[in-house]
Amino acid sequence: MSILIKDVLLEGEQTDIYIEENRISEIGARVEADFVIDGTDKVAFPGLINTHTHSAMTLLRSYADDLKLQEWLENKIWPLEAKLTENDVYLGSKLACLEMIKSGTTCFNDMYWFMKGTARAVEEMGLRAVLAEAFIDLFKEDMAEEMKGKTKDFISYVRGMDNERITPALGPHAIYTVSKESLGWIKDFAEKEDLLIHFHLAETEKENTDCKNMHGKRPVPFLDNIGFLSHRLVAAHSIWLTGEEIKILAEKGVKISHNPTSNLKLASGIIPYQKMRDSGSTISLGTDGCASNNNLDMFEEMKIATIAQKGFVKDPTVMPAIEALKIATLGGGKALGLKIGEIRVGNLADIILIDLKRPELTPRHNLISNLVYSANGSCVDTTICNGKILMQNREIADEKIILENAQSVAEDLVSR
Amino acid sequence: MSILIKDVLLEGEQTDIYIEENRISEIGARVEADFVIDGTDKVAFPGLINTHTHSAMTLLRSYADDLKLQEWLENKIWPLEAKLTENDVYLGSKLACLEMIKSGTTCFNDMYWFMKGTARAVEEMGLRAVLAEAFIDLFKEDMAEEMKGKTKDFISYVRGMDNERITPALGPHAIYTVSKESLGWIKDFAEKEDLLIHFHLAETEKENTDCKNMHGKRPVPFLDNIGFLSHRLVAAHSIWLTGEEIKILAEKGVKISHNPTSNLKLASGIIPYQKMRDSGSTISLGTDGCASNNNLDMFEEMKIATIAQKGFVKDPTVMPAIEALKIATLGGGKALGLKIGEIRVGNLADIILIDLKRPELTPRHNLISNLVYSANGSCVDTTICNGKILMQNREIADEKIILENAQSVAEDLVSR
Looking at beta carbons, which residues of chain A come within 8 Å of B355? Predict the structure, then answer.
């Protein structure tokens, strides 16, 4: 199947974008296509890339807010997660995919439980995703063995799906939930199987202190020492880092996922963005799960990223709009090692069309500023992923039933 | 004219809201009405109240971002504002009203230039507003006289309109742009004419230092000394305050307008929210103008208010969702001295209906959390102000022409 997006604004010019199968095959030349989209009054943009989320946590949206981190986790989130089933995860992930499609995200990086459910949801909903079964052993050998089994099983499952949109990955949760031995196993397995590793790093000050107490080193030197730091690693949060640690992460090619809304809402801290950028690190953007955000709107995330950074470092010139946009697109593509995040010939056809005839996008002295500071996900008119149209005129088939199923399974979950 | 909103969710219960003329006249009793709105799958909420904006600055949206405050003002904003005409302000304010109606704001507090233009826009668009002609004398006597004339002229103009939705007010810009003598005149004139005063207070650290250099006192003691602090004063920003100053503001009944997005984006600082709240101050919420936000979405403003506060004071329990909602509704009504901000019998009929069938509002473990942390302005389906329906199904007459006029006048403005 081929698609022609006609007369659309792209990088400041009116042009046409031609999609063949799942790739962008021509820009600027108008050719015959199976399907034509009128791009008038719209701007084409690469689909946004959410490099850290737990999509099924949509089910926990608004279940627990305004609490201290430990209370939130121990009394609210973990007890509920203990009752989760694969079907819950499937229905929660369907809701997440729906929300992402409607807000212009075409690819996401997810680590959670019962991820076969998420894989099925992604397959059905048409998005692109990198999926990892969470790995937590709580420093117990039997639990580690069980997790290794689950991890291998999930990797085989995804490979068996043979879906070019879904990439399996490894999901060691964090330094305070996974043993040194298991982290070593993960690292070796990732190399052997050529997989990305999705990990929470240096989210809180406490994490660093605890790590020092347990391992005699702060997280980054500890992980460096066991060879865990590499280009395979996507490290979420990455807040509490020294200048030296930032340099080590950059040298090892570790990819950062910045999660500003979650970091503010849980009062975790703020990422040392400028130092990271200056170190040459790949920085990408993620919403985190809906229990700590509470939505998956990457437009909102871009705005919060830049204004929070300006506010915290007391400099309004920090992270200008274009940089916020880059971490949500190019940075995401680099972090996940996929040819996405930029509309160029040869790249995967993950494209969104933004409706320019909106009050909040008028006037348009600077389109990039408007997208970062004024837009939200509802400005997206059309979402295309892997050369397939997932939404046009903001309409998605099955929206109603996805909402109903999610609402009822969420109610059931909290009453179990 | 009467309106019945049927089967709508209100404070956790399905009920009916009956509006007669411009008031909420009954809740819970179903009566005959001229017009019936089906409230199924919607929640009724008081229209949001934006207590600090410069609506016509929509025209400057995306014109100047990511700059230092002084450079931003001196090289970008002020030179452009010097070319403004009343017609520009009229068209920019129409755009702002459109954006507010579409994002659920029913009342705003505005201080700017050529405010007759804004008054005309508000009259046509159906919103409620408190409007003040900006007063800046730069410590020059002739300029002060000119401003007094403009101020009086604007007050007479608005009173001549005889529109119950539009309240005139006084707009002394700030301590660094208005002389002590003029502040004294404003205070006396406000008392004589029974008017609110809209003012920028303690937005930056520099403002306080400069004030001390010029007047020998910090802003709050200085203003207190000349009798400027009273229940008539709505003080925007109000960031750089000592504990003692917060107490003085509370004692004098000064109303605070908190503007978190602008404060972060311009790196001005963060409001001492908890101390203010504990002092018993009336705290309300505002977006500031579109040159420093860059939209007028009060849902986004609520979220940014609470997560920024949590992040800055390093405590996720600070400003829970319900408090964010209160400053955007009840706090706004109190700040502006209007019977709005709460859906109760006898109050003015400023009501919004929010569409609950949205992915980001599903599931609904806690409606308030969803509205503050997950929603944005596009969740608003219906906007009613003063008993008139301004938007239903997100449709507004003349939207297209308002956007076109604003785009073309904004282009003209920057090329003058």
Answer: none
- Using the CB atoms, write b or e for A337-364: b if 16+ within 10 Å: ebebbebeeebbbbbbbbbbbbbbbbbb
Residue indicated by tokens 């007047």: B215
AA letter at B114: F
Q: What is the pLDDT of residue B31?
A: 83
Kindly list the residues from chain A whose CB atom is less than 8 angstroms away from the CB atom of residue B313.
267
The percent of residues in chain B predicted with pLDDT above 70, rounded, is 100
Nearest to B62 among A269, A308, A369 (CB): A369
Å between B292 CA and nearest CA of chain A: 9
Q: pTM for the whole thing?
A: 0.98
Contacts with B306 from chain A: Cβ below 8 Å? 265
Partner residue facing B68 (CB), from A307, A317, A370: A317
Asked if CATH classification 3.20.20.140 holds for the domain at A48-336, the reply, yes or no, is yes
Tens digits of residue pLDDT in B266-322: 999 999 999 999 999 999 999 999 999 999 999 999 999 999 999 999 999 999 999
- The C-alpha of A405 sits at a distance from chain B's nearest C-alpha, in angstroms, of 10
One-letter amino acid of A365:
H
- Interface predicted TM-score (ipTM): 0.98
Number of cross-chain residue pairs from A and B with Cβ atoms under 8 Å apart:
217
Strands B48-53 and B105-112, by their bridges, are: parallel
Q: What topology does CATH give the domain B2-46+349-399?
A: Urease, subunit C; domain 1 (2.30.40)
Residue limits of CATH 3.20.20.140 in chain A: 48-336
Closest residue on chain B to A95 (Cα): B359
Domain ranges in chain A with CATH number 2.30.40.10:
2-46+349-399
pLDDT at residue number B163: 98
Nearest by CB to A295, which of B66, B290, B374? Answer: B374
Contact by Cβ (8 Å): A208, A240: yes
* Contact of A24 with A18, CB cutoff 8 Å: yes
Tell me what percent of the residues of chain A surpass a pLDDT of 70. 100
What pLDDT digit, counting tens, does each position of A69-91 carry?
Answer: 889 989 999 999 999 999 999 99
